[in-house]
Design a protein that fits this description.
With 203 residues, the chain is of the alpha/beta class. It is 25% helix and 34% strand. A hairpin with a 1-residue loop joins β12 and β13. The radius of gyration is 16 Å and the shape is globular.
Length: 203
């Protein structure tokens, strides 16, 4: 099996690759759009600004290659910024158009509702999940978060929520597309189990 980690100049990918090494799965960093079609499963990672990320994806042709990959029915997992890019738009630094795989948008944490909590939301927090193959062997795990915005979407796509002053969407699924706001690759054994479950999807 070939796991591809999309490199679009947004964040250090070494930790993602290392996480797959720890579970004994080979993962390749994909730097060219024409390499995406050769992957069996795809990871869309990312740290940084939504608009910059979409600009890199669009200018490199990665966006269309990712769309073709998703149309093929193969599984893709978006992590942190990668999850946010799955939606139609983001309010970060003005409105920016996303990949549009999942209906919904990405918004800043509401400072009034967050209360005394600091923004960005940074550190360990519990993910309360619904029944999903990605959570096999887990029970509302603590995972590592770093973000100032979160997704808002229809409940039918939500497979996990987290509370930070108020409840927000932290994991989504639509058909063969999954998204996680926290970083599984930085979340020790629980995060590694999520990646292992992702690898085993469809087997």
């Amino acid at each position: 099996m070939k796991i591809g980690i999309v490199d679009y100049n947004m964040g250090n990918l070494a930790s993602v690759k290392n996480a797959f090494d720890k579970i004994g799965v080979k993962a390749d960093i994909i730097k060219k759009s024409d390499e995406i079609k050769n992957c069996d499963k795809l990871i869309l990672p990312g740290v940084g600004a939504f608009g910059d990320a979409m600009e890199h994806l669009n200018s490199s042709g990665m966006d269309e290659a990712i769309r073709d990959f998703v149309k093929s029915g193969k599984y893709m997992l978006g992590v942190c910024l990668g999850m946010q890019l799955l939606f139609e738009s983001s309010d970060e630094f003005g409105e920016n158009k996303g990949l549009g795989f999942i209906e919904g948008k990405v918004v800043y944490f509401n400072r009034k509702r967050v209360g005394e909590h600091k923004i960005p939301h940074m550190g360990w927090n519990k993910l309360f999940h619904k029944n999903s193959s990605l959570f096999k062997g887990l029970n509302n795990p603590y995972l590592y978060f770093v973000h100032s915005l979160h997704a808002v979407c229809d409940e039918k796509y939500v497979i996990g929520k987290t509370v930070y002053g108020y409840e927000f969407v932290s994991a989504v699924n639509k058909d063969n597309i999954f998204g996680f706001q926290p970083h599984p690759e930085k979340s020790h054994n629980e995060g590694l189990m999520i990646l292992k479950n992702f690898v085993e999807l469809g087997e």
